[in-house]
Each structure stands twice: as C-alpha cells, then as structure tokens.
Amino acid sequence: MFELRQIGLKEKEPIKALFQSVFMSDPWNDDWSDEQQLDLYIIDLIGQSNSLTYGLYEGDDLIGISLGFTKHWFSGTEYIIDEFCIKMEKQGTGAGSFFMAEIEKAIKEKGLIHIFLQTDSEVPAYSFYKKNGFVELKTHVSFSKDLKNT
C-alpha cells in the first residue's frame, strides 16, 4: 500500500536517486550527471524555509516525489510544484493519481487553497495532470531567455 510522507533534507539522497532515474530517461532525457549541480538544485527545492516536499512510499521504498514550495498570494497560500515524478516502473499503476490526491488532502489541511505547476504539453505528464483535474491556463505564458550565448 502507498503512504504519503512529508520529507526534507534528510531524504536528499533517495530524492536525488529517484529524480535522476526519472528525469534522465524518456521523455525528458535531462542530463543530471553533474552531481554538484544536482545537489545544488535539490537543496534549492527542498532546503528553503518555504519548501514543501512530499514523498510517496511503498513500504520503505520512495516511489514518488513532489518538490515544491508555499507561496503567499492575494487570494491565499498556494503550493507551487516545481518537480513531480513517480518511479518509472510504477507509472501507469494509479500511484501518481493516488499521490496527487493525498497531496491535495494534506495541503488543504494546512490551509492552502491552490496548486500551480508547469509541464510540457508534449509529454505524458500533460495528460496525467488533465486527468487529475488540473486546468490548462490558456492566457498564461512562460518565458525563457538563454544568456549563455548573448
């Protein structure tokens, strides 16, 4: 059976291992081989005063992570999810939907009123979020500027 746990810095190594196993695979294919850069990134996400990190466990095995933070906004406090993933071999089993439902219950108990996240529209995560009740913000636009070559 699955169990939601709020986790943090003491679980950094299992978080890193799961993160690499998912995001260095298809469809993401991100290069997280630089251990120092990965350490800094994970600490950025889980080591701040407003970080809110959840793990999905099956027994003692960490099979899902939600790395995010709380943000105080005019309409109330939100949970901003920066990274969300389920162990590759557990994807498609209902674990992700269970995890998201448990996160929603947990943040409601904390008085949070909204979840915000971003994903690519051409990956399976897009359909997953829509299936789990997330609504695409049609007027929201993300911008990026690469400064390496300017």
Task: Describe what you observe in this structure.
The termini are far apart. The chain is globular. Helix content is 31%, strand content 28%. The protein has one domain (2-131): Aminopeptidase, CATH 3.40.630. A hairpin with a 2-residue loop joins strand 2 (51-58) and strand 3. With 150 residues, the chain is of the alpha+beta class. It has helices at residues 12-23, 35-46, 95-109, 124-131, and strands at residues 2-7, 51-58, 61-73, 76-86, 114-117. Strands 1-2-3-4-5 form a five-stranded mixed β-sheet.
In short:
The chain is α+β, with helices and mostly antiparallel strands and 150 residues long.
Mean pLDDT: 96
Radius of gyration: 15 Å
**Might you state the CATH topology name?**
Aminopeptidase
Gross geometry:
globular
Please give the count of helices. Answer: 4
Q: Architecture, CATH level 2?
A: 3-Layer(aba) Sandwich
